[in-house]
Amino acid sequence: MAKKEPAPPLPGSDAKPAGKLKLIIVIAVALLLAVGLSIGGTWLVLHKNSAADEAKSEEAAEGAAPGKQPAIYEQLAPAFVVNFKQDGRQRYMQVSIALMARDEAQLKALKVHLPMLRNRLVMLFSGQDFNALTTPVGKEMLRQQATASVQELAQKEIGQTVVEQVLFTNFVLQ
Q1: Which of 111, 106, 112 minimizes the C-alpha distance to 161?
Q2: What angle do CA 9, 12, 15 make, to 5 degrees?
Q3: Residues 52, 130: one domain?
Q4: What are the pLDDT digits (tens) for 56-76?
Q5: 146-170: string of b/e by CB count within 10 Å (b at 16+)?
Q6: Are residues 166 and 80 in the same domain?
Q7: Phi, psi for residue 59 in degrees, rounded to 5
Q8: 8 within domain boundaries
Q9: pTM of the model
Q10: Where would one find the signal peptide in this protein (predicted)?
């Protein structure tokens, strides 16, 4: 039996496999180029946005008041506990307070007068009407009165108001 030899390739059939290979290479290069452009564009946009944010931050820092310092909070511990006699019934109020100031040195100077400050606040709290304190407006009024009282003491003892706000960090009525 004789072996059959494969038929010689036709001149047109040679081009088809090479053409497919060229097509695959062109598609792969185009795909890699598209991915590269996508990554480059994303990086450029993100970098441009971060540069704009940095510029805005710098402008905001320059535009801020030069004398404005960050807030400092001083927690007054232990919490204030006062009692009321309301309609023949004993009632209690517990308030935790934080003082907000901007100058550390002045706040330290005010700490020297902490016993007097606590006394003023206890007297202020114990003189309140229990029913008025059950409303949000009553609580806000008490907070403003406490702020005014602390600022008055600071003005009298140190010569400056020192405390911007008195903040209630816990407020319990029973």
Answers
A1: 106
A2: 95
A3: no
A4: 666 655 554 556 789 889 998
A5: bbebbbebbeeeeeebbbebbbeee
A6: yes
A7: -65, -40
A8: no
A9: 0.59
A10: none
